[in-house]
Amino acid sequence: MDQHKIDFAKSFSFPSECHDGTAGRFTTSAWEQRSAGNASLRSDDWILIGDSFEPDWHRLSPWSRSPAKRFFDCACVLLAIPLLVPLLLLIASAVFLTSRGPILFLQERVGRCGQIFKIIKFRTMEHLLDAKHHPITTTDNQRFTSIGPCLRRWKLDELPQVINVLLGHMSMIGPRPKLPEHVISVLLCRPGITGMATIIFASEEATLARIPKDRLKAYYHSFVLPMKQQLDADYMARATFVSDLQILVKSVLRRWCGVAFDNLVIASTFANRSDGSSVKRPSVDGMP
Q1: What count of Cα atoms within 13 Å lies in the side-chain half-sphere of residue 280?
Q2: Global model pTM greater than 0.85
Q3: What one-character-per-residue DSSP string does the chain give?
Q4: Average pLDDT in the 92-106 region?
Q5: Cα 57 to Cα 234: distance, rounded to the nearest angstrom
Q6: What is the C-alpha separation between 12 and 45, in angstroms, rounded?
């Protein structure tokens, strides 16, 4: 288990909607066992990692927890199949022809109620058998393939996740599923292909590239993760069919809300907070 998780792990209680509806607590040892593949998260095994704030994930809107949202997800994928299949085949061919290694990239992510699943992406980095990629991706700390940056810029590497949606691992709209070492709270909803934080942090990799390498991990854990978490929690608490549709359209048309968090402001904010203190809770007033 990552040392950062151990250092900052602390247990907490909140109403659970994952299993029997009872409140639970999740301990560091339980998460270590789950991360090692030894157990499944139970309603008495919740965790909060981080020293910032606790989002009200139990405040899911009626739409966010309704069967209609699941129907919406599957309908979006099935209706888009005539367009998706040719595009997926084209991208798969490009990945195959421009680099050695598998076409798809599979990685363990944490989904609803702490369930681990394999997220599916088009591979955008060189296939390394004897080395691990950096867990925090920037535009200059990874060995990208020749078409990798383009795929990531246009979010085309995420398209295979429609399979995760059909399998029930993910939703079209929701918080992005995190790596186990980046989890700071348990999701009570399915993670999404896109969402509020995805739109706000669309240029995240370019922003993170401006952060000094010795401060990158601290910045990511003290600012980026809590900010994303709060943006998504606030959105999911008031999400509706219309707002999900708006997020989806914005994502397809690449209408990112980068003005909400200007890159230079974010970088300078961290540079001026060398004491490592936490940032203010973000507001998403005016967002869909």
Answers
A1: 5
A2: no
A3: --HHHHHHEE--EE---SSSS--EE--HHHHHHHHTTS----TT---EESSS----TT---TTTTSHHHHHHHHHHHHHHHHHHHHHHHHHHHHHHHHSSS-SEEEEEEE-BTT-EEEEEEE--B---SS----SS--TTSS-B-SSHHHHHHTTGGGTTHHHHHHTTS-EEESPPPBPGGG--S-BSS--EEE-HHHHHTTTHHHHHTTS-HHHHHHHIIIIIHHHHHHHHHHHHTT--HHHHHHHHHHHHTT---GGGG-HHHHHHHHHT-TT-PPPPPP--TT--
A4: 96
A5: 8
A6: 10
pLDDT of 286 higher than 90:
no
CA distances from 79 to 67, 114, 184, 209 (A): 18, 30, 35, 37
- Rounded Cα distance between 115 and 72, Å, is 22
Burial 60-70 (b: 16+ CB within 10 A, else e): bbebbeeeebe
Of 76 and 6, the structure prediction assigns the larger pLDDT to: 76
- pLDDT, residue 285, reads 47
Residues 103 and 96 sit within 8 Å (Cβ to Cβ): yes
Q: What burial class does residue 17 get, using C-beta atoms within 10 Å of its C-beta: 0-12 exposed, 13-18 middle, 19+ buried?
A: middle
Judge whether 248 and 70 are in contact, CB under 8 Å: no
pLDDT, mean of residues 181-187: 90
Angstrom distance (rounded) from CA 194 to CA 212: 28
| Other C-beta atoms lying within 10 Å of the C-beta of residue 113 | 20
